[in-house]
Structure formats: structure tokens, C-alpha cells
Fold:
Amino acid sequence: MEAGTLVEWLVKPGSNVKRGDIIAVVDTQKGLIDIEVFDEGIISDLVVKENQKVPVGTVMALITGGKETVVKEEEELPEKTIEEKKVENIIVAEMPHGVKASPLAKRIAADNGIDLATIKGSGEDGAITKEDVERTITERIAPGEEKKLIAGENIRMAVAAAMSKSNREIPHYYLETKVDMSKALSWLAEANKQRSVKQRLLPVVLLIKAVAKALTEVPDLNGYWENGLQKKPDINLGFVVSLRTGGVMIPAIHNADKKTIDELMASLNDIIPRARAMKLRSSELSESTFTVTSLGEGNVETVYGVIYPPQVGLVGFGSIEEQPWAESGMLDVRPVMNITLSADHRATDGASGSRFLMGVKNHLQKPETL
Amino acid sequence: MTDQEIKQIIFQLLKKIAPDTEPEKLKPDDDIRHTLEIDSFDALQFVVALDEQFGIETPEADYGKITTLKDILNYIMQKKK
Structure:
């Protein structure tokens, strides 16, 4: 994303804020995003106004430190932090050549993401005026249904842009293994007998936990490729949620390695409905360090994922299917799942990738230790 | 509660989970999850909603008994007896 429109401030100058507070709602290509604050202090100025569209990296508000701050003296106070909120790739409409428009019309059109080529000018020589642009904006304030469709298309565009970049820049390699899920599934069935329907666990939480544990053993896969491999201390797993209208959202499950199975299920219960409603926090969309995609039951057996840059790896789980399984010289039928790893060859190679996949597999064989 | 009333409630619950679908067009023997493209997460939410709405308790082992509209109707009627 390159830009976003501030929809609403949830704080006023003088409001006390602390880390994690949601201070604003921004409309982006990925839907409405809650903007969080990463520092503590008092809001001294709201720089960006509501309904203003600004590029990523714009200072949105100023926060001054110290609880004793007196509002009337705020200008003399040293600035503690400048909040810079980053939202990701948006595709900005480019100015087509040969379109005549007044500078003011151009600016309003750019601010509102209007493509001038789609407007018929009423000025001299068909030049587009401020009024033409404003009329187009009013006409485009469409009913909810239409707006939703546009949001869905935008998400597809954002996903396509990120995946094209990934395929262009990342030398992917792929590894695959099969895991016998009988132990994991019987452990889960037993665990679910003790739980009320609301607290029941889905197999995917075991997968998430196994991945998080394996990443602690192969930390080279948990990070970003930005002028070399930047390993990340926290394991924030981006979990792919498919939207019913098309496209995907990838909210992060923060510190997945430190969460219990029940806490991970609670995280899923929280983020999946919010992802589907396109109501995620900025940190949930920007802080993933590794991606997990699970196709779930009744779907295909194998998924070869495209790495989400700047991450360096993605693990894909296929559907659990009954398959013939040979073990200790005996043939049996077991619930089997294919696991694939897509990884960045600049950051890791087959040996570390294989260690990671074997780690995931081993953890899934010992569900009681997850 | 009549079959028709139960059906209406089921349609409402499904519509909440999959707003873009038309549950009322389901045939009695259609596999609901497959027809409405409901994933395992939403399927669990549906069971939670069924249990709350009809005051029943559906153990995980019974998930196979509620895959079609006809099955769910039978299951609820039996549980409510």
C-alpha cells in the first residue's frame, strides 16, 4: 500500500494514550484498519484531518511524553515521538498523458484516487475542472454493496502486486513431506471432549503451534530479506484467511510460540471474523514474520505457496486425507497430510528448510507436548 | 417447533455465516458445507450457533450426523425429545 484515507480520529488533542491503544481508523485497499499507537504520552496535535488521503509514512499525530504535561504549554514541550503509521502497498492511479485538467482538479482527483481519464471535462477544450472532479466523487459514493465489491477487487489487486513482486524477486525453493496425523487427531478428539463447543479446538491450532516451535529451532526462516537476512526475535505468524468475496487477508498471530493451544484458538476466534469483516489492526497486517496457509478439510492435498515479501518462508498444509501408510514393514490406512515449505534461497537452503519441515512433522507426532 | 420453523432458523444462522449464499435453495440431501463453501472455522461457528439456538449440545463425534439439512432436522428433533 502506498496511501490511505483517515476515516476517523478516536482521540482528541490532550488525550492520554498508551502502547496498543487504537487512535484512528484508516481506509486502505485492504479495508478499514485500526491504527495503534506504539508509545505512551499525550496527543499534542492531530496533523492529518479526517477524510484526508495521505501517503504511507506521513506523520499523522504528535505525541508528547510525560503524564504531567500541561496542554497549554504543549508547544514548548520536547517531542517524544512522531507517530509514523505505515500501511502497505496501494496502487495509485497514474496520471494519464494528454488529459487536460486544472491544477486544482488534478490535486482533488489525486487526493481522492480518481482517474482523470474517466472524467469528461466541461471546461475550455474539454479541460477537467474542480467541479467535474467533485461531481464524480459524489457520484461514486455508492451504496454499501458496490463499495464492498470495490474493496474485494482492491484486495485482489494488492495480493497480485505482492505476489508478482515475490515471483520476480525471490528465488523460491520448495520442499514437501507427509505426516501421519492419527496421533494429533486422536489427541484433539480427546481434548475436545473436555471442552464446551465454544472452546473446541480445530486441527489448525496444532499446525500453527508446531510451526512456531519449529521456527524457534530454525530461526533463519523467521525474518525479512532487507539488504540481507534480518532475523526477527518474535515469531508472528501470518495466517492466511480467504475471503468469501475473493482474495485473502493475512493477519498476524503475535508471539505464536509463546501461546498455548487454547490461546491460539482464541486468537483465531478473534482474527478470522475480523479479517473477513476487513476490520484488522495495523500491527496485525504488517508484523508477520512467517506465513502459514492451511487449506483445511475437503480441499486439495498440496499447496505450493508464494512467499509474502519481505518474509523468507511460507508453510502450506493440504487437506488431511486417508491414505495407505507403510510403517515397520506393515501397511495401514492413516489420516495423512502434506506439508510444503516455500522458502527464499537467498536466506536459507534445502538443508535448513528440511530441518524445519522435519521439526514440524516431529512436533505433530507429539501433540501432548505442543 | 415445526420442521419449517427449525428450517427457517437454520437458514438464518447459515446466512449469518455465509451472507453471500442462498441457504433456502439447499436441497434436503445437499452437503451443506460443500454446497455453501463453508470452511472448518465457520462450520464450528455454525455448531456453536445451533447449540445456542436450540439449547442442545452437539459433541464433536456427532458432526457427521449434521451434514445435510435433513440430517440436522432429524438430529434436532431427536435431541429435543
In short: Chain B touches chain A through 18 residues (CB under 8 Å).
